[in-house]
Every structure is written in C-alpha cells, then in structure tokens.
Amino acid sequence: MRIGVFGGTFDPPHYAHLVLAAEAHDQLRLEKVLWVLTPQPPHKPYRVITDLPIRLKLLQAAIKGEAAFKLSRVDVDRPQPHYAVDTMRLLSEQFPDGELVYLIGADSLRDLPGWHRPADLVEACHEIGVMPRPGAQYDLSALGEIMPGLVEKLRFVDAPLLEISSSDIRQRVQQGRMYRYFVPEGVWRIVQDEGLYLDQSDRH
Predict the structure, then answer these.
(1) Domain count, the chain
(2) Which of 3, 89, 103, 109 has CB 3.0 to 4.6 Å from 129, enough for a Cys bridge?
C-alpha cells in the first residue's frame, strides 16, 4: 500500500492544501493520504498557534467526504518535540507493509538539510513527493551531495500553483476582508462560529 504523509499546522487548512494532496494522490498512485497535524512546529517554538482541538476540528471539516484522505493523530498523541523523522518511524510501525511517501513543498525541500536528522528522514521514506510552492528554488545537485540517496527518492508533483496561504487567510479574517472561497465551507463556518483569527497581534 502506497501512503502519502502530509504534515502541517493547518491553521487553517485551505484549498491549496487540498489540491496539492489530491494531485499527489493521483500522480504518485497513493491509496491514501494521511494528514498529520503538527501540534507545535519544533522550528517555530514561539509562534502562537490556534488551540489543537480547534485545528483538529478544522482539518476534519476540510477533508470530510474524501475517502482517500485520513486524519492521523501520530503527532497529536505523543509528547513534543515532533520531528518528521520520528513521525515517519512511528508511521512505519503502524503500516509495516506500507510504502510511505513523505509529501513536502519545494520550499521545504530547499530547507531539508537544516531539519532534525535529515539523512535519517530520507532513509525512512520510500519516496519523497515534492509539491510546487510559489517562488521556491533549490539546487538538486547540492542537496544530493549533502544527503546521499535523496535525489533518487524524489518524485515531483505537477499541480496548479494556488497562491493561498494560511497566514494570508488569518490576515484577511483579522482585516475583515473576503476569504470565503479560499477554504472549504465547513472550515469557513468554524472560523466564523468560533471567531477565529480576529486578534493577530501576537502571531508571526
């Protein structure tokens, strides 16, 4: 079974997330995509993030009705810090017969050498699916020298470049601007009902 692993804070999840996951599912021949919610990114320890129960609710609303998408609690149900290499190790134990395909944006591929134990992360992945990000640039030959075996595992996903970001959505909400069609209806309703993102003064 080929399983995509799509991690993030998803604060909030939006249509660009869904399009990328759908294209990865199709082009990389994945049977399912696990959406791994990160409680607190280890590389952004001081960033203020929406409470975990609300983000779980938002993510469940975003992927509702798509059988190929599944919420994973692999990081939610364990203590911090949540490094990708440990996430992949735990998922490989949950799916011993699975081919785990780690899904990252092109910007994350560029930054991969600075991640926690990047060589071990590469080794833990059957493949690494790289999804386009606006303006992201990287040097494959340099990355291959730093992390042997990386380039051979890369699979590139051709997907529409939707310049939608969670930070932009949060800013739009705070400023009272239109954002309704950046997110699925279920996500929009939760943001409205919970009064989310109205105070952005302590966010980055």
Answers:
(1) 1
(2) 103
CA dist 51 and 48 (Å) reads 9
Asked if the structure places residue 70 within a domain, the reply is yes
pLDDT at 119 over 50: yes
CB burial string 176-185: b at 16+ within 10 A, e below: eeebeebbbe
The model carries a pTM of 0.92
Tokens read off for 13: 């999840």
> Tokens 């926690």 sit at which residue?
116
Q: Which helix (H) or strand (E) holds 8?
A: strand 2-8
Question: Residue 42 falls within a domain, yes or no?
Answer: yes
Average pLDDT over residues 65-87: 95
Q: Is 106 exposed, middle or buried (0-12, 13-18, 19+ CB in 10 A)?
A: middle
Q: Which domain holds residue 84?
A: 2-164
Report yes or no on 178 lying in a domain: no
| Structural domain includes residue 185 | no
pLDDT > 70 fraction of the chain, expressed in percent and rounded:
96
